[in-house]
Please model this.
Amino acid sequence: MNKIKEKRILLVEDEPDILIIVKRLLESAGYDVVTACDGKDALEKARKTLPDLIILDLILPGLDGYQICGMLKHDRLYMNIPILILSARSESKDYELGIKVGADDYVKKPFETKTLLEKVAELTK
Model:
């Protein structure tokens, strides 16, 4: 019997409460979750773990989410990893910039659990 490969998600979030809530939500849905709390750690873990999806906050210590997204999407080795931005920045210019630097989708905080899980499922197909 073949076991279906568990999808790995890199969750990048500097707010500990949000990190814990989203990590538990994803794990309860069957995902393997790796976490990072700042931009440098996010890049290192993305390159080391090759996740199936990156959920990325925009406001982070060090490198921000826009920079991380742009760096990964312009690197041939990582450009095909989908990136879902999860941010409290909710103005249309924030969304537009996120998509411009290569994000595949954008979810605003506070978020609906169902919406987040649907986007994650869609991006990890």
Summary: The first helix runs from residue 16 to 28. The helical segments are 16-28, 39-49, 65-73, 92-100, 113-123.
